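Backbones bend. Shown next:

***
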Amino acid sequence: MSSIERGRGFGSVLVRLLGVVIALIGLTLTIGGGQLIMLGGSPYYLIVGLLMILSGGLLALLKATGAWLYILIFIGTVVWALWEAGLNGWALVPRVIAPLVLLILVVLSFPALKREGGGGRLAFGGIGLIVVLALISGVVVAQADKARVQSPVPAAGQGGVVDPAVLKVGADWPAWGGSESAQRYSPLSQINKDNVKGLKRAWVFRTGDLPGDRFGAETTPLKIGDILYLCSGRNRLFALDANTGKQKWTYDPKVADDQIPYTAACRGVTHYVVPNLDPAQPCATRIIEGTLDGRLVAVDARTGAPCAGFGTNGAVSIKTGMGNPYPGMVSITSAPVIVRGVVVTGHQVLDGQKRWNASGVIQGFDAVTGQLRFAWDMMRPDITALPPEGQTYTPGTPNMWTTATADEALGLVYLPMGNSAADYYSGLRRPAENEYSTSLVALDVTTGKPRWHFQTVRKDVWDYDLGSQATLVDLPGGVPAVILPSKQGDIYVLDRRTGQPLHKVEERRVPQGGVEPSQRSPTQPFSLFHTLRKADLTERDMWGMSPIDQMFCRIQFHQASYEGYFTPPTADRHFIQYPGYNGGSDWGGVAVDPARGVIVANYNDMPNHNRLVPRAEADKLGWFPRDDPRYIEREKELANRGGSLSKPKAEGAGDPQIGVPYAIDVNAGWRVKFTGLLCKQPPYGGIRAIDLKTGRTLWDRPFGTARKNGPFGIPSMLPLEIGTPNNGGSAVTAGGLIFIAAATDDLIRAIDIETGETVWSDVLPAGGQANPMIYEQNGRQYLVIMAGGHHFMETPEGDYLIAYALPEKG
């Protein structure tokens, strides 16, 4: 047998194998497509599946008609794909790319096939060229790193927004949000759109704190004078030289690993100068932080030594009066705020554990002595300090885990409140909980009582707790306003004196039903100022890496309960929550350029695929709270085998919710378990500029490239803007730049605030899930970001604090 004949024989075997593969794919599409049609979905998959079975069978018999049939299938697929998705490159990927790979293999099979009429190659070549050009067009659209500009961005000085608080920001960055107003704005302009491409790393500091599986530092330093102050994920405090990044001192409050809640996070610290005290005295200037084990710790800003006059040895416990909560149940992850000498703090109560978990009481402590000045227990307004002997603050009440905002002039602190314990079931909640949950509460620090509150979700069973810090602005005419972003995407603008909306909020009817229909509010408040929320999902929005997993997602879409925004939770089948609990806007908040009158908001655009799980089923699955003996025994077994804490799942993925009839199972982002890809087509995150006066979108763009994302957890390294999930916020400058990391591609960027285009970026050594900060030292402007990574965002762990600056002249 000649080598040519042997080659043809081997080629025939490969073609027969290709035919079998195509037929099997067709069989899968036929079975799934039939199910999809019965659910009311697209007939495409069934039709194509049957044709592929025929095509594959003919190819297995080495019939050229099998190849021509597949070519026709592919042409029809392209036409259908363009009809469903247009030239949206990312939407075309699952519809066209895998079929295109098969097409190439089919074309290569022609030499081994039996000719039946021959010819047609020129026609096929023309068809192929048209298809390729269509695909290239789609990919070009997907690659475009340009914002959709809808309105011109106001020039600097024309925004008409006044905020005296931002005058404190410049050389310094004195608060977690830049200033007390939390605008995350710097008036510095040394780094601007013309020279930002020259930005280089000036120094790198490593904290040495790598907490393991629950990592996620989320840290933004302060800069006061010539020193930076920051905390690591496990609350180690550091003071650094602002010019060189060299350590001046460190203090370790010794937080044990079993106190780590969902994440070892410390977003920031607070700075306080004691009035009328000689600056040379110990702790005349102090740094105060909240810890994961529920303490407020105060240290001398010059030396790092604990402030002996603050509580006991420089610390006070916020857990006094809470009934000795189990380790990890009560923690402080956000920087406390100080108003009129009172340190106000909320705390995180670990989600999903128990209906009658620790209280969400808000407390205020004297910034000098640490003495409790007030306590606000919404269920017991008569308790203004510690509860009576033998009693505790009311268990299970809504907590405030994120960062509050201080208003020194009005004597208020604005508290973005969370939800009652057991996020996804409301039947046991009491009237005060229903009144204050998922609300912005303006608390008077002189009385410790609410002056007003504004609720964004009634009887919240979607975990839409307010995660974003509120931002203060003074609008034209001197109206003091507060900007409140929300997880569901709505942005509210309120008079911060009264809580009254300054832009209309409309009541709209929302879906009813679910497991507790009598509990669902018939209407919910919708902001008419602006929303980051996109249109409701449809079957066409489903995605994947191939037609097979896209079909699987379509089937799940039709099987689930979904009536749009505010679909009630169900137990007999999954329900779709869109947006998911990660936003909209989350703890990174928004930034405001007061000179241009522009709000900058990065956001997530992902659904969750959820189900309430009956208690008996949850017990069989081993879903127990942290203080359950069965959970404790499991942890001991892990420790004995050389492990540590259990690896954290996505929040809500098997949370027991003890005390209500159901546990909760959340598929965060609605991912396909086999590939790890999301069922909704990209983008999954974006960034937007909004006119502060009118609420109009100025520009909007996907945010985050595909370079660290891909199927099966394999990074694609594609520098294409896909729009990734993001966690963390931005900072804006008078130089016309937005600085932001946050996305899962491990990049920090500078974005032109006028056009939305990326004008500079750098690869971080770990995930950048933190807010950046800006300062000046010795005439040089710096940009600083914490690259600590985040387990929930699946970015690499690190302990890097990185400072960027322009090269020094000379």
Notes: DSSP finds nine helices and 42 strands in the chain.
